[in-house]
């Protein structure tokens, strides 16, 4: 894609700090560095996001995530890792090329805030909605 910043990084038109690369994907340090070692893992084949990926392309991307994440945790002495993937603007996606954030965690106050809020939803009704036949 001509205007995709990640495609330009993959092509070498924009510099990046690479930590892993193979024929299918590139992992490089995010310029925002939410925490030390914040990394983006990007497939070289352009797709808008995970929702647009084929199962094979998604499997290829996610098959490398544990190896890259473990390398970051081990070599930066992180205590854990948030693995985050946003799809569409409402979910926080700002670059529309599939990418996975690897955010090493060092302490509760290390700069990353991820909060879940409890809701009183009818789980059976939600499951019924999700599983309804939408082919009509």
UniProtKB/TrEMBL annotation:
A Pfam family assignment: HIT
Short sequence motif named Histidine triad motif, residue ranges: 97-101
HIT domain location: 5-112
GO MF assignments: catalytic activity
Top-rank lineage group of the source organism: Bacteria
Alphabetized InterPro entries for the sequence: HINT, Histidine_triad_CS, Histidine_triad_HIT, HIT-like, HIT-like_sf
UniProt xrefs under PROSITE patterns: HIT_1, HIT_2
Active site: 99
GO biological process: nucleotide metabolic process
The protein's name: HIT domain-containing protein
Taxonomic path: Bacteria, Bacillati, Bacillota, Bacilli, Lactobacillales
């Amino acid at each position: 894609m001509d205007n995709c910043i990640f495609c330009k990084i993959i092509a070498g038109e924009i510099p990046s700090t690479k930590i892993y690369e193979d024929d299918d994907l590139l992992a490089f340090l995010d310029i925002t560095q939410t925490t030390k070692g914040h990394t983006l893992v990007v497939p070289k084949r352009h797709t808008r996001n995970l929702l647009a990926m084929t199962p094979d392309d998604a499997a290829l991307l996610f098959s490398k995530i544990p190896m890259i994440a473990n390398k970051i945790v081990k070599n930066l002495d992180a205590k854990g890792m948030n693995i985050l993937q946003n799809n569409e603007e409402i979910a926080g996606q700002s670059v529309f090329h599939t990418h996975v954030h690897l955010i090493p965690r060092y302490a509760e106050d290390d700069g990353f805030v991820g909060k879940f809020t409890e809701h009183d939803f009818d789980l059976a009704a939600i499951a019924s909605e999700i599983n309804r036949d939408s082919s009509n």
